[in-house]
Design brief:
By secondary structure, this protein is of the alpha+beta class. Helix content is 18%, strand content 20%. Helix 3 packs across helix 4.
Length: 211
């Protein structure tokens, strides 16, 4: 009797091989409430890349060694929303080195919640189908939660926090993200091709209460 073929992620775990994927392995509780539905028929095949053995042309993200200490609560509160999100992501990933076990949404959701932008603190800037039309790069700002087609991993859906452009013409952006796939790991700086962004959410402070 032939043995069943293991799931690719199970096989990858057994071999100790991991790449930044995520795809459909999200947790619904982690997604923005009005986030796009990820229907399998809407998936867009990405170009041949590291998943098929070809060398990547992406730049390598810089690594801060040792990381700077976390800002004081007062200094953190004084930052604009996007910078606050980036600081919390940096602290969780590099200072505290928190381990995550979930989907790519899990890390970002926790960062946004800790920065004070849970629920209505996330403003929808752009949303379309996974198959496009894709967002103009000019719409993306530092600290944005962006959902894109991961062209380095076979065209699966992936979520990251945008830091800055490394090559805006070539579409290479530096981001904070987590590998997903239920792997126990911390968030890392990731470089992605961001020419196929289908959703953008931005942290916003609530309006001041009227007295």
């Amino acid at each position: 009797m032939p043995l069943p073929t293991p799931h690719p992620l199970v096989l990858a775990a057994a071999l100790g091989v991991w790449v930044v994927g995520c795809g459909p392995l999200y947790l619904d509780a982690d997604r923005p409430q009005d986030g796009p539905e990820l229907d399998a028929t809407e998936r867009v095949p990405g170009p041949r890349s590291r998943r098929d053995g070809r060398p990547s042309t992406l730049q390598r993200p810089e690594v801060e060694e040792p990381p700077a200490p976390a800002l004081s609560p007062e200094a953190l509160a004084a930052l604009p929303p996007g910078a606050r999100v980036l600081e919390i992501a940096r602290v969780m990933a590099e200072v505290e080195q928190q381990l995550i076990a979930g989907s790519c949404y899990t890390f970002i959701s926790r960062v946004y919640a800790r920065a004070g932008f849970a629920g209505r603190g996330r403003h929808k800037i752009y949303k379309t189908l996974v198959s496009g039309p894709y967002a103009d790069p000019a719409l993306i700002q530092a600290g944005d939660w962006i959902m894109h087609v991961n062209q380095e991993f076979g065209g699966v859906e992936h979520s990251v926090i945008f830091i800055r452009w490394l090559d805006v013409v070539g579409g290479q952006g530096l981001t904070w993200g987590y590998v997903g796939g239920m792997r126990e790991a911390r968030g890392t700086r990731q470089v992605h091709l961001l020419s196929q962004v289908y959703a953008i959410y931005r942290p916003v402070d609530p309006p001041p209460r009227r007295r």
